[in-house]
Amino acid sequence: MKKLIPDCYYPSSANGSYVSHEAVCVLNLHPEEVVVHMTLYFEDREKMGGYSVKIPGERTRHIRLDKLTSADGTPIPKDTPYAILIECDQDVAVQYTRVDTTQAELAIATTII
Length: 113
Hints:
The chain has 113 residues and is mainly beta. 0% of the residues lie in helices and 51% in strands. The protein has a single domain (2-112), classed as Hypothetical Protein Tm1070, Chain: A.
């Protein structure tokens, strides 16, 4: 199973006490654990891989991308547009959400993929 999130962006600035962040929420309806692998693609640099998360059987996991690191400890870069390729052995439901606190009005965008 492959799913794409083409418009990701994690800003480093915030307005107030709320932190800007992105989340990928995964719902695994299968009785077995699944491993979700993420590869990041950029406009001006090589892709970055090694981001993996285990989702227990019949569970959901909310993956905060501002807290995610790759197998070698690399965080997702801030202030850089990127896309995510999500790969998994089983079909899972995926929802992407971005919370942008760079303006006083705040903004949230979400979509199911």
